[in-house]
Amino acid sequence: MSARFLPLDFGEPALLAPLKSTLQQIASSEPLRLAVGLSGGADSAMLAVHAAKLVQTWPRLQLHCFHIHHGLQSIADHWQSQVHEFALGLGLPCHSLRVDVAMDGKGIEAAARDARYAGLARLAERTGVSHILLAHHLDDQSETVLLRLLRGAGPTGLAAMSPVMERDGLVYVRPWLDVPRKQILQATGEYAERTGWEVVDDPTNIDDVYTRGALRRRLVPALDERWPAWRSILARHARQAREMSSLIDEVAAEDFARLQPSDDATSFSLESWRGLTAHRQTLVLRYWLARHGLRSPTEARMRELCRQLRSLHAMGHDRNMRMRHERHSIVCDRGRIKLLPENDKSQNL
After folding, report:
1. Which residues, listed in sequence order, are joined to residue 171 by a DSSP beta bridge?
2. What's the distance, CA 38 to chain centroid?
3. Angle at the Cα of 111 from the Cα atoms of 136 and 206, rounded to 5 degrees
4. What pLDDT, on a 0 to 100 scale, did the predictor assign at position 321?
């Protein structure tokens, strides 16, 4: 095995400290299998390097690398080979998967993201991995807050990315959300100089055909010039919004528990829902959809959903009440609001 990429004594203290703290929080007395989402870019590669260094002293932690091949660029085959070689040099097992990016009415970025998470879940199932480390950093977080603000996200939407997130039965962990990317790039340069390793350079990261690429090319330079601390300020807003979001979720969870929900939480009582105030009706609907891994509808669609639910007749049975949302339908049957997958035959009420 080639040792030219082995971390040896390499490690940037500013990157090791938050990662070590994260591993201490998720590691227990039981063996733990975790993976690094590895695209081959500077951020994920440095996360793999520093994680590999720390795991050397953690015998109960088994570290893997997961690479998702989106099939969107001709050079992606080369990136896949490059990532496997890099992981081999670190002494880590690497697993890759090619996914189909289905648009389904979404933008290319959202579709690729959903395909990526689905692919990571499949790799985790194959390998027994329970936690996946992601290399999102302070710059990513601040950009996400700005994009959500421009898209009209509400106060909870401005919470942006969470340090810990559960999805598809997996725990995703982002240890570097408070780390500026310049520190990662500095470590990248030092590591490349010592090893000869070459970073994967994805041109779409700054291609203004894509929303985030346009932000980086057009807005970020102006913000850096006029408001150099904007990243830290927006990241602070994200933390504050996350605290508020947690409080709102607690209220919504208590309200939902009073709606006579089904055991699988796919349905609840229309009459009980109508007993809530208008604002809490909206909150509990957002909470309900989020429990099933669905995004919240736009403000206009949420208003329409609430209008339809409030206008149903007293028995709450209306074969015509149906709103489609992310491959699901929200329907009403015998006084209960139900969430049904579009391929569920029971939709033919």
Report:
1. 131, 166
2. 15
3. 50
4. 82
